[in-house]
Amino acid sequence: MIFNILSTLLAANAIIFSIATAEVKPYEKIAFTNVGFDGTYFPVKKLSNIDSETKCTCEVADKVWFSGVNAPLSDYLSVHMRGPLSLFKFAFYSSPSFIVNNDRSSQDWTRQAYYDANSQTSENITFLAKAGNDSPCLGKALVYAASDGRSAASKSTILSSDNKLSSDQEYVIYSNVSCPKSGLDKGCGVYRNGIPAYYGFGGVTKMFLFEFTMPTETAKNSSSFEYYDMPAIWLLNDHIARTSQYPTNENCSCWASGCGEFDIFEIMNGTEKNHLYSTFHTYQGIEDLAIGIQSYGYIPRDTKNTMKGGVLFDSAGNTISFMSDDITFNSTYAVADINRVLSSIPVNETYSSQLLSVDVTAPTKSPMVFGII
Ligand SMILES: *[C@@H]1O[C@H](CO)[C@@H](O)[C@H](O)[C@H]1NC(C)=O
Ligand SMILES: *[C@@H]1O[C@H](CO)[C@@H](O)[C@H](O)[C@H]1NC(C)=O
Ligand SMILES: *[C@@H]1O[C@H](CO)[C@@H](O)[C@H](O)[C@H]1NC(C)=O
Ligand SMILES: *[C@@H]1O[C@H](CO)[C@@H](O)[C@H](O)[C@H]1NC(C)=O
Ligand SMILES: *[C@@H]1O[C@H](CO)[C@@H](O)[C@H](O)[C@H]1NC(C)=O
Ligand SMILES: *[C@@H]1O[C@H](CO)[C@@H](O)[C@H](O)[C@H]1NC(C)=O
Ligand SMILES: *[C@@H]1O[C@H](CO)[C@@H](O)[C@H](O)[C@H]1NC(C)=O
Hints:
Oligomer: single chain
Bound molecules: 2-acetamido-2-deoxy-beta-D-glucopyranose
Helix content: under 10%
Number of helices: 3
Largest sheet: 10 strands, antiparallel
């Protein structure tokens, strides 16, 4: 996947070193610029013998290209939550055009999906959990999540008002728009038989907002935990969880070949258990996808109080993770209102870094056309 970017690696090292020497401090806003590039990934073509301990395997198809602003995160994305976490509000917004601090090139945001725990409102949302059929190479399949966000339900169910995930527990939020049937050339790609399959949240220019708590884990730490007291909110290319989020074979999802992940607020390790980092797991100028492109500043995790925050991907390649008590969840978000939230965060509370330009051009001229070549 990194064949064509060797020429940019020298520049990459220079930038990464200059960032790494900056002091790691708390911020309210983490900004990335120059987000999006032309690149490829390998979609899953076939899942074989998924119940067999010895023969469970997957095959990928030929590479597909993505290109343009925010790519590959311009594709449909699913929203993932890991505990300790309670979700009070969630909203997904899109805008035909929005450029941070440029009112003339911006149009208001429209809310397209919404969850409010208190009023038990759920619009254009499906909560899914990995609580289905367990496969040796794919792990557990997606099923409808019950109101606790963890166990299985027979139909789409709203998350309860007192929802709370503990360490290691996760659920996923998709839209309520059903996928066509599984198939390489179909809208949702190849996915596991029998799962509830929905589109994630699409568009180049998009914003995800959350009101939530991340209280300290009350259970004792032990080796049975994988992510003890390490909550996170993150986005994945919506194909990933429909095949496998944590496969034992890299070809069982498009993740390893770079179809896209962005971590909005993530605790990285137990040493820094109250530091929320943002990270791109894409191949934009880097070789090690697992490490990814990380912010070297963090947003503090408030373990006592409700936090309001989210991420905005604008139309000019700016990605901004931010936390602000001024966030609202109304059905439209006016240009001036969101700019006010962002600009009220002082410049010295903003950590900014630029992603590298990648010197490859997709063979198609139109962005968002995912041709199979
Ligand atoms: C999806 O959500 C929208 C917004 O709440 C609603 O109008 C629509 O009926 C829902 N569709 C389905 C299939 O549930
Ligand atoms: C629901 O979300 C999907 C995916 O982003 C979007 O295409 C659709 O228009 C939304 N539906 C409504 C009713 O807003
Ligand atoms: C994944 O697929 C590629 C291309 O078909 C193949 O070269 C590679 O060996 C596969 N990886 C695994 C772990 O099976
Ligand atoms: C914890 O994560 C941060 C952010 O990635 C990193 O800088 C730090 O070195 C990590 N600490 C340990 C002990 O791994
Ligand atoms: C929990 O225990 C693991 C080792 O089992 C350790 O790596 C981790 O830092 C601990 N977490 C906390 C928050 O103490
Ligand atoms: C959101 O709606 C509330 C109540 O209707 C209103 O007071 C507030 O000004 C709105 N905020 C924004 C940012 O639109
Ligand atoms: C920004 O400036 C304020 C006031 O001088 C200070 O309290 C704060 O620590 C600074 N933040 C950063 C990230 O340096």
